[in-house]
Specification:
- Pfam families: DHquinase_I.
- Keywords: Lyase, Schiff base.
- This is 3-dehydroquinate dehydratase.
- The chain is of the alpha/beta class.
- Helix content is 39%, strand content 14%.
- It is built from twelve helices and eleven strands.
- A seven-stranded parallel sheet has the order 6-5-4-3-2-7-8.
- Helix 5 links the parallel strand 5 and strand 6.
- Helix 1 (6-16) crosses helix 11 (316-331), helix 3 runs parallel beside helix 4 (115-127) and helix 10 (273-289) packs antiparallel against helix 12.
- The structure holds 1,3,4-trihydroxy-5-OXO-cyclohexanecarboxylic acid.
């Protein structure tokens, strides 16, 4: 049995991992989660955005799905509207933005032929300070060169999608596409993931740039669980931006089941019963929200890690603060604050 004094936890929380959303960039952490937003207007998600974003690292703004009215099969959003949407998202959340325009042949709504409009929007996004720009390698060369020149501080993510279902991970087509993507960016997509794991292993032996390789559809779900960089949806997002996308909570549950996420069982102990109960229920609610397998108890400690709460915590803020720090020290992720708050404030 391990006994952790609360002071230890606090130390880890305050001097160790950051509690804010200031997370390292793609490829610098063990697991990076990108959350594609499919609201036509980001304001529609205003009240649920922080909940959707818990534990995520980057928003993907799917620009081809943005618009003030009904969106048809093809959509070129107005630049002013796009600019406002970026501004709104930046004001609502500190997470960096991945700016993505998907054309119809890439599974989106932007016309395949509207390269100039796409380039103009990408430059607008750079000026608005987005962190990442998705550039599909099938865009004309001049667009790719132009945005690579003008990207400023933004990082380019070179991508490739195939919806045909006949691209093989071990085949020549993919190798060619990869060479094209690797020349200017760092990400690649293809459909069908049977040999994806081997492809990724081989890639890592040869290249430094972070690679996001996922399979679309049901056959691709496993790759979304194992990929170090993954795109995750949330039940409060209108619809997943690609078939087979899982929620972050589902990814955590699956990672636990396949042995990629170690379970922690903790027991809270202390002299003040109410503090202990609030602490335990807040932490358990936070684990549940994000699909972590961990458990938190306020009763007997047999075989569990013990967390000692030596004080009586009266105010909601002080409990919230302690639970948040403990959550972060266990998961290395920022806490789902509103979820913890709800659980703590409803505990007697
Ligand atoms: O490129 C991608 C990946 C994606 O297609 C997926 O399969 O999760 C989802 C898109 O929103 C994103 O632009």
């Amino acid at each position: 049995m391990t006994v952790v004094e609360l002071e230890h936890v606090l130390l880890a929380g305050t001097t160790g991992k950051e509690l804010s959303h200031k997370r390292p960039l793609i490829g610098e952490v063990d697991k990076t989660f990108i959350i594609p937003l499919t609201f036509p207007d980001v304001n529609n998600g205003k009240h649920v955005l922080s909940r959707i974003g818990y534990s995520g690292d980057i928003w993907e703004l799917r620009v081809d799905l943005l618009g003030p009215g009904v969106i048809g099969e093809e959509n070129v959003p107005d630049p002013q509207y796009v600019k406002e949407q970026i501004g709104t998202l930046q004001s609502l959340s500190p997470l960096p933005i991945l700016f993505t325009i998907r054309t119809r042949s890439q599974g989106g709504k932007f016309p395949d032929t509207a390269a100039q409009e796409a380039l103009d929007l990408m430059i607008l996004a750079v000026n608005a300070g987005v962190g990442y720009i998705d550039v599909e390698i099938e865009w004309p060369d001049h667009l790719i060169q132009e945005i690579t020149k003008k990207k400023s501080e933004a990082k380019i993510i070179a991508s490739y999608h195939s919806w045909t279902g006949d691209v093989r991970w071990t085949g020549e087509v993919l190798k060619e596409k990869f060479v094209a993507a690797n020349a200017f960016g760092g990400r690649l997509y293809i459909e069908d993931c049977y040999e994806l794991g081997l492809f990724v292993r081989d890639y890592r032996e040869r290249h430094q740039k972070p690679l996001l390789a996922v399979g679309m559809g049901l056959n691709g779900q496993l790759s979304r669980i194992t990929s170090p960089i993954s795109l995750v949806t949330h039940p409060l997002i209108p619809f997943p931006s690609a078939p087979g996308q899982l929620s972050l909570a589902q990814v955590h549950k699956a990672r636990y089941l396949i042995g990629q996420l170690a379970k922690r069982d903790v027991s809270i102990q202390g002299t003040d019963e109410r503090t202990v109960r609030r602490f335990a229920q807040g932490l358990q609610a936070a684990f549940d929200e994000l699909g972590y397998p961990h458990t938190c108890h306020s009763d007997d400690s047999d075989g569990r890690e013990v967390i000692k709460v030596t004080e009586t915590l009266e105010s909601l803020d002080s409990v919230l603060d302690f639970v948040s720090k403990l959550f972060t020290s266990i998961t290395e992720r920022p806490p789902p604050l509103s979820v913890i708050e709800r659980a703590v404030s409803t505990t007697n």
